[in-house]
Design goal:
Shape: globular
Mean pLDDT: 89
Low-confidence stretches: none
Largest sheet: 9 strands, mixed
Oligomer: single chain
Strand content: 15-25%
Helix content: 25-40%
Order of helices and strands: EHEEHEHEHEHEHEE
Length: about 200
């Protein structure tokens, strides 16, 4: 899973951010968390070791492999993260992970138009540059479905809600296989086969 794009979905309070914190902390390369969640942003012990940057210049000057990219505009941050990831791979040969939590703020829904959307371009174009994207949202119906088809793995964290039903039915996710409790994690492949079951780790909560 560390080499392929991933969709992470889950209702509020189900453990989605805890799952992402673990992914951020354990990735074997550069991991960039795009953080546009207000004044305080993302908390949690797993980001204690991440260096906070606020621009592409600061990201390039950093020697850290865990970056927390604070921003007001997730699209601008994603453009910068994409450029940094390309150069990082070219200079080191190592991969980069970009975590786009609350991805609905950076990926528009079907029918909307955003020229040169960097998150969509990363999903469609950048695996050959060893760039992996984790697209995360509480409600994947808020996202354009076509780019999501580039995700090899779909991770559902915590129990699903009624408002997820349209997305679940559209992609034929087996409801009987979805988590039924908070902090449970189920990993599906693109054919909606269950590959793995686990729980989020308390250390990242």
């Amino acid at each position: 899973m560390q080499a392929y794009h991933t969709l992470v979905a889950g209702d509020s309070g189900g453990g989605k951010t805890t799952y992402l914190r673990e992914a951020h902390a354990t990735y074997p390369g550069l991991s960039i968390w795009i953080d546009h969640h207000g004044v305080d942003g993302i908390g949690g012990r797993s980001l204690d070791d991440a260096e906070t940057v606020r621009s592409e210049r600061e990201a390039r000057q950093s020697d850290a492999t865990r970056l927390r990219w604070r921003c007001d505009d997730p699209l601008d941050a994603a453009r910068g993260a994409r450029a940094v990831a390309h150069d990082y791979h070219e200079s080191t040969g190592f991969p980069t992970q970009v975590i786009a939590d609350e991805a609905q703020d950076g990926m528009l829904a079907d029918g909307d138009v955003e020229a040169d959307n960097p998150i969509k371009r990363m999903l469609h174009e950048d695996r050959d540059k060893a760039l992996k994207v984790q697209v995360a949202t509480q409600d994947p119906q808020d996202l354009e479905y076509t780019p999501l088809k580039q995700c090899k793995y779909w991770v559902w964290v915590g129990e699903w809600s009624t408002f997820h039903r349209g997305f679940i039915n559209y992609f034929d996710l087996p409801q009987s296989e979805l988590p039924t409790e908070p902090y449970q994690v189920v990993v599906f492949d693109k054919r909606m086969n269950v590959l793995h079951r686990t729980e989020t780790k308390e250390v990242y909560a």
